[in-house]
Design brief:
The complex is a heterotrimer of chains A (328), B (155) and C (682). Chain A contains 16 helices and 10 strands. Chain A has 328 residues and is α/β, with parallel strands linked by helices. Chain A folds into 2 domains: 125 residues, Glutathione S-transferase Yfyf (Class Pi), Chain A, domain 2 (Up-down Bundle); 149 residues, 3-Layer(aba) Sandwich (Rossmann fold), CATH 3.40.50.11810. In chain A, the strands form 3 sheets. Chain A has a 4-stranded parallel sheet. The longest helix of chain A is centred in the first third of the chain and has 18 residues. Chain B has 155 residues and is of the alpha/beta class. Chain B has a single domain, classed as Rossmann fold (3-Layer(aba) Sandwich), CATH 3.40.50. Chain B contains 5 helices and 4 strands; from the N terminus they run E-H-E-H-E-H-E-H-H. In chain B, helix 1 packs across helix 4. The radius of gyration of chain B is 17 Å and the shape is globular. The relative contact order of chain B is 0.21. By secondary structure, chain C is an alpha/beta fold. The chains are: A alpha/beta (328), B alpha/beta (155), C alpha/beta (682). Chains A and C meet through helix 12 of A and loops of C.
Chain lengths: 328, 155, 682
């Protein structure tokens, strides 16, 4: 039983509640426990950086200080949301390197009776600990309902690989950790070219046309490869792809029905959990038709148009290219 | 007439890498202090610790040992042996009243004339800060102290 | 103050000191006249009887000065204070030799590279020069007359690698009448050139110009061709190498095989040919890599052969008209005696999968340059048609990317030399065979050498489009109209000053050259070294590109660094010329810098035994003493330093020489009134 400190972040409590629920549901199979940081506050997401950098660091620093204080037996702080993860990791990194900043943040935190020692915490994303700590061997052994026949598009979003200096997910230009994880669950993973491209983030609020264009690229890309659904690891990405797909369709005059689920939900399904337990069924874009392929019945499944027929590819001509065993 | 202390340093170079680096520093006209006198050996592995002790006993204030980078030795692996000897030498000279900082090992490949010149300049300043060695005098002083201590015990 | 124990007591040294001005190179900083006068005065007791200064000691007059003094003044030691020994040590040694003095009784002290060129304070520089001269004088007293070692040169030569460079070298030596062994890892010689279609800038057919040479090698009475073989061990030294070669089993009896080809025609097991066809084509389990293979004998790939998997099939054996298939054939170990070795092991290409942004290995229509060569080749998987992965469709637009993996700090920092020219060649071939729109994405155009730039101009006139910029991404994620179903090359067009998305049907990546993956091991096996980027290190990058630091081992072709075919051929011939020169002389003289064990002093502690990477140290169990093989000893001196009993002496750099040099250097490094030792009260 490995214990991790856990920072849920605002999204996981509200719009990405299903991410949190599914994550908690699969703890027993992964043999891990999470201890939530007591009295954590919002990380400021991407907005606060453009308001006031130092204050943003202080806001995040408070979480780091609380986590350090709470750490008992574990100094790894895990976040499921990519923005929360990146914020925590960035601030921790800057406080280590920038002594002037550190002095200011020390002062700010001291006002609340807190202190953060740079280097005391190891900050990681949920996918990181699942892939690198738990490992594919263990995950494979827990699969009871393999996702055979389901074509998935692994979508990392822009944040977790920018930066990824230690190649935690593979080559940052072309990560493969989520791909391999989904393969271990039995799914057919497509070679999604936009796997690290931006979903638009908060552009849906600020400049919707830009967001719709970006979302269109992602969804049409997945569709071109005949994906049944997109698998993501960030609440923002899931929100955009799912909740704004309808608006995107209207704006671009398209008719996509590409559901978007979290990787923890896919793991839960593969481990045999009930979809309701994993928060599946609340999406804007119904995942029912896709999940029907693996024999999962969703409650309140509506009538949806059948998925488009597969384009057959005949193997003629030259042998297809191969990537080899691992990704360099 | 207070003149600045000018250390005298003996440097050992290997024929294939560090001596060529010194030549290269010369060809490129890179300046370094004249306090150092270089001795050419075929390989850093040739360095007998007695050479270092000889230099120090004849009045040198510091010794700089140079050779090919590990993995690039012309004789394949002999610079590793030089490294081993150097480590042991440092421990030994400390017991003989010499600060280990006075003997330094630096790797320099044949193309690293600039780096070698810089290393020499740095080392000269380091020795200058340590002051003159005058090892025979120091040994004599150590001898006197020890003799006195022994006499005290005996008395 | 010098140790005279090894000197015959009746012979007093008569030392000549010569201080060179080197024009103003030395004289501009060091007071050379003062140094010369000082040497005579201060070091007279040490034996300095003549001390001169002269403008250019290396000139004929300078050398004659030394020779005359030796003869007239009876000098028996010479010290020249001038430039670096790496430049003129040999010059002054020869001068001594001409005058009848053993050349090793001279010393060249560097007061140029080590003094005048690196110091600015003239007074201190002159003082240092004097100290250096004193060091040289004290050292030379301890010099002993040495005779260079004579080693005979075995007339046979080993050429490792059967590419164009190795082939050229082998033919030159064999045509001169001497035996050559050529060892090649693949089943056939020819190297990478055999894979190409046309060669730049003449657009000669590669096979047409290569195969005559290959045939010559195969038929030459003086060349023993060992293909499907590798060098396992190398022992010995220049003129006398013992090379162990492992000849892998072909499972084909070469005495019986006629090369008719029925075996590979009928073989039922087909696999993707990853080597010669670069994964674009197929071959059978029993195969020859290409039709013009030399030798013509096929090999059986045991990993794909059905018989080796489960004992069935044996179609080749049944159908062979001469019964040449032999599944029981075993490997052979051969021991070759050669005098010189030429290493011409060529190159590998950069693995484009390391740059996932370019889509190689994932996207169907992204090809590497070598793959494209195979496609263009008339005997290749598409019979020379330029088509997409489906084998049928001609591309309408092709993008050629330069510098893939080269000139890039993330991968290989160096330029691979030939890719610009071959990219232009591809552009021309694509235009010729498909009429497609061709884009070349380059950083700089490197088209030096004969007729290369004219070729570039020709390709420009053919209407090929050039975009100066590094390609950021090749993707099938289309966005804009006109991109559907295509590959999109996203690139910064630096001359237009904007990003561009260029839709193409096919992308060709001009991958850089790399040393073969096992070059470090190979180098160690031969006792030579590699540079930081992995290519084998030459003796001197400008003046001696085909020799290595190890006597008797030469290099030729791409293994010394990326290069084109004409240069590889030239280097092959150059290496051959060097070898022939050696063979012609029949013997060589080696520097007599060696270690010797005095058996009287050796206690058999064997501390030295593990210190020699050249295997020169032998321990005699019966006598309990160590001995050093002078021919194998390279003179590094590590064992000399290690011997606790001082039983090992090193000629050329003996303890006495070095210690005396240190004494000399330090004796004159301090002010006159410097007291080192105080009088100790009794």
């Amino acid at each position: 039983m490995t214990k991790y400190l856990f920072y849920p972040g605002c999204s996981m409590q509200k719009n990405a509640r299903s991410y949190l629920d599914s994550m908690m549901a699969i703890r027993p199979e992964l043999d891990i426990t999470f201890e939530e940081v007591d009295d954590w506050n919002c990380c400021g997401a991407t907005e606060y950086w453009s308001v006031h950098q130092v204050k943003a660091h202080a806001l995040i620093g408070r979480n780091l200080a609380l986590a350090e204080q709470q750490a008992n037996g574990s100094n790894t702080l895990v976040a499921g949301c990519s923005a929360c993860y990146l914020n925590l990791a960035k601030t921790a990194n800057y406080l280590e390197e920038d002594l002037q900043l550190r002095a200011k943040i020390d002062d700010a935190l001291a006002v609340g009776g807190l202190h953060f020692t740079p280097g005391s915490l190891d900050i990681r994303h949920l996918l990181d600990i699942v892939f690198n700590d738990v490992g594919l061997e263990k995950i494979r052994s827990k699969v009871v309902r393999p996702l055979t026949g389901l074509r998935v598009a692994p979508y990392y979003g822009c944040m977790i690989v920018r930066p990824d200096r230690e190649n935690r997910y593979g080559n940052p230009e072309y990560p493969t950790a989520l791909d391999k994880l989904l393969e271990a669950l039995g799914a057919t993973v497509i070679d999604f070219p936009q796997k690290t491209h931006c979903c638009g983030g908060h552009m849906t609020q600020i400049s919707p046309e830009v967001a719709y264009e970006l979302l269109h690229r992602l969804i049409s890309g997945a569709d071109r490869y005949n994906a049944d659904l997109i698998v993501t690891l960030c609440p923002m990405c899931q929100l955009n792809l799912d909740a704004y797909q309808g608006d995107m369709n209207t704006f671009m005059d398209t008719d996509y029905h590409m559901p978007c689920l979290y990787f923890t939900q896919m793991m839960g399904l593969a481990f045999g959990h009930d979809p309701k337990e994993l928060g599946i069924g609340k999406e804007f874009v119904d995942a029912g038709p896709a999940l029907a392929k693996i024999g999962v019945e969703l409650p309140e499944a509506e009538e949806r148009p059948k998925p488009k027929p597969r384009r057959k590819q005949k193997q003629e001509g030259l042998p297809m290219p191969r990537m080899g065993d691992g990704n360099e | 007439m207070s003149e600045q202390f000018e250390p005298v340093i003996i440097g050992f170079t290997c024929n294939w890498c560090s001596y060529r680096a010194a030549d290269m520093a010369g060809t490129a006209r890179i300046k370094y202090p004249p306090n150092i006198r270089l001795v050419r050996l075929m390989c850093s592995g040739r360095l007998d610790p007695t050479f270092v002790l000889k230099a120090l006993s004849e009045g040198a204030d510091g010794v700089l040992i140079t050779g090919c980078h590990p993995g690039e030795c012309h004789y394949l692996e002999q610079n590793y042996k030089a490294l081993r000897r150097y480590r042991l030498l440092l421990k030994t000279i400390a017991q003989m009243g010499i600060e280990p900082e006075r003997v330094k090992l630096v790797w320099a490949s044949a193309a690293e004339g600039v780096q070698l010149a810089r290393a020499i300049t740095t080392f000269v300043e380091e020795i200058r800060a340590l002051g003159p060695l005058r090892w025979p005098l120091r040994l004599a002083e150590m001898d006197i102290k020890e003799t006195a201590a022994v006499e005290e015990v005996v008395a | 103050m010098s140790n005279k124990q090894n000197q015959p007591q009746d012979e007093k040294e008569r030392i000549g000191v010569y201080v060179c001005h080197c024009g103003s190179n030395i004289a501009g900083v060091v007071d050379v006249e003062d140094v010369a006068v000082w040497a005579k005065e201060e070091l007279g007791d040490q034996g300095v009887v003549v001390s001169r200064d002269y403008k250019f000691m290396c000139s004929s007059l300078g050398q004659e000065m030394i020779e005359n003094d030796i003869k007239e003044q009876g000098l028996n030691r010479v010290v020249v204070a001038a430039c670096s020994p790496h430049l003129h040590e040999a010059t002054f040694r020869k001068a001594c030799e001409r005058a009848g003095l053993n050349p090793y009784l001279s010393e060249l002290v560097s007061i140029r590279e080590q003094v005048s060129w690196v110091h600015t304070d003239k007074e201190k520089a002159t003082e240092k020069a004097k100290a250096m001269v004193a060091g040289g004088v004290e050292r030379v007293i301890e010099n002993e007359p040495l005779e260079p070692l004579r080693v005979p040169i075995h007339p046979a030569t080993l050429v490792v690698g059967g590419g164009i460079a190795g082939i050229q070298a082998a033919l030159e030596i064999a045509d001169a009448g001497y035996q050559v062994y050529m060892v090649e890892r693949e089943p056939s010689i020819g190297g990478h050139m055999a894979q190409f279609d046309k060669t730049f800038p003449t657009l000669d057919c590669a096979a047409c110009i290569l195969t005559p040479k290959m045939v010559s090698v195969g038929e030459h009475p003086n060349i023993e061709l060992l293909t499907w073989s590798e060098v396992e061990r190398v022992e010995g030294y220049v003129g006398n190498f013992s090379v162990t070669v492992r000849k892998r089993p072909r499972y084909v009896d070469t005495d019986l095989c006629t090369g008719c080809g029925i075996c590979w025609e009928k073989c039922p097991k087909k696999v993707i040919d990853e080597d010669f066809e670069q994964g674009l084509g197929y071959r059978t389990a029993v195969y020859t890599p290409f039709p013009q293979a030399v030798p013509k004998y096929p090999v059986i790939d045991t990993e794909s052969c059905i018989f080796f998997a489960n004992g069935k099939c044996k179609a080749c054996e049944k159908l062979c008209p001469t019964g040449a298939i032999n599944f029981d054939q075993e490997e052979e170990i051969l021991l070759l005696e050669v005098g010189n070795i030429i290493i011409a092991t060529g190159f590998d290409t950069f693995d484009a999968r390391r740059i996932p942004e370019y889509g190689y290995g994932r996207l169907a229509n992204v090809f590497t340059s070598v793959e494209f060569e195979r496609m263009c080749n008339a005997a290749g998987p598409t019979n020379g048609e330029v088509v997409l992965r489906d084998g049928v469709t001609k591309p309408e637009a092709v993008g050629i990317v330069h510098c893939v993996g080269s000139r890039d700090r993330n991968y290989n920092n160096y330029c691979s030399v030939i890719c610009c020219m071959s990219s232009l060649k591809f552009a021309h071939l694509v235009k010729e065979r498909t009429g497609a729109e061709v884009y070349n994405f380059y950083i700089d155009m490197r088209t030096a050498y004969k007729d290369y730039d004219e070729f570039y101009q020709r390709v420009m006139e053919e209407g090929v489009l050039f975009v100066r910029g590094r390609v950021a991404e090749i993707t099938d994620a289309t966005r804009n109209p006109g991109e559907e179903g295509k590959l999109v090359v996203q690139v910064e067009d630096t001359l237009a000053g904007r990003q561009r998305r260029i839709p193409v049907d096919m992308a060709i990546l001009s991958v850089g050259l790399q040393p073969p993956s096992d070059t470090k091991e190979v180098a160690q096996r031969f006792g030579i070294s590699c540079s930081a980027s992995g290519w084998i290190t030459e003796k001197h990058p400008k003046l001696d590109p085909v020799a290595t630091m190890t006597e008797g081992i030469f290099i030729a072709g791409a293994i010394q660094g990326p290069k084109d075919i004409p240069t590889s051929v030239a280097q092959g011939a150059a290496a051959a010329a060097r070898v022939l020169g050696r063979i012609n002389k029949g013997e060589m003289y080696l520097e007599p810098i060696r270690a010797t064990v005095d058996p009287e002093k050796c206690s058999g502690c064997r501390i030295c035994n593990n210190l020699c990477p050249f295997g020169a140290i032998i321990f005699h169990e019966d006598l309990m003493v160590t001995e050093i093989n002078h021919a194998l000893c390279q003179g590094c001196g590590t064992c000399v330093a290690a011997c606790p009993a001082g039983a090992i002496s090193g000629t050329g750099f003996s303890n006495e020489q070095v210690l005396s040099q240190i004494e000399g250097l330090l004796a004159y490094s301090f002010p006159k009134d410097f007291e080192l030792v105080e009088m100790v009260p009794a």
